[in-house]
Amino acid sequence: MRQTAVPVGCPVCGVRESRDVSDVSRRHAASVHVPLLLPSVDFMQTIAAWAQDLARTLLADALPRRWAHVQGVAARARGLAAAVGPDAELIEAAAWLHDIGYLAELATTGLHGLDGARYLRDVQHAELLLCRLVAHHSCAVIEAEERDLAHVLACEFAPPPQPLADALTFCDMTTSPDGDQVQVTHRLAEIHDRYGTGHLVSRSIRRATPLILEAVGHVNARAAGTR
Prior knowledge:
11 helices
């Protein structure tokens, strides 16, 4: 189910910068353990089950509110299975793993999608399309531009197919920080309230809002067509 991906060489991929973590309810603990490699996915374990185990290992103790959020996002993904079709397992796996880059041990650039995708690629040797989904989730390229990391993101991870990106955006942007299902407008408003008007994340979300709303609309239409 998974394949080893060779990292793309790029002279700027090692960029590091300070990271704002004001949105993360973090509990540092010496017991936090970042696994070097979880057992390979095989026919006895689906990629979604593997992703759930990995997300639990990384987030459940260290970032419990993040863990609550990703559980809700994964539940949203399971609810889209009929609309997504053969890619349902992949979307659920991405839902479990999309926020692992918030973990302090993985954070190097401040762009959590990129940091999480690098860990999946370089340490877990995850399927490349899964890494691309995590790297680009919820219009991450716009935040990458705000952080002057768009060139790094593009160098390392190509954007995933738009229907898959839309599905993951829908799941993330209709789930609250505590894992509850919400309307996308409520989720966007909550992000602005949490960060404040002038924050880099608020600026990014403001720019991304038309794309997010378009993605959610596309997925709602696809889901309605399967009922």
